[in-house]
Design goal:
By secondary structure, this protein is mainly alpha-helical. About 65% of the residues lie in helices and about 0% in strands. It has helices spanning about 1-40, 65-80. The chain is elongated. The protein starts with a helix and ends in a 5-residue tail after the last helix. Bound molecules: zinc ion. Zinc ion binds next to loops.
Length: about 80
Amino acid sequence: MDDMKMGSMEMDDGELDDVHRASELKKKQVMAGMAAIKRRKPVRQHDGYCINCGKESPGAYCDLDCKEDAERFDRAEERNGCKA
Ligand SMILES: [Zn+2]
């Protein structure tokens, strides 16, 4: 009985090791992906403030002007994309 218990414990350790290795690999992949995104373009994330002017806003932009401004900027950036 004791031998079987020991055996199953060893197997558990092996599984844990695999999970640990997999999570390390995933962490590296996520970090590499984030670095690639950062190189390409700043990440625009809505956090309660207007993306364009920084004013408090319930949406991504506080008003239509800011939305249009940001979209115009995006289009200009795309046109000049190959510059860098
Ligand atoms: Zn705004």
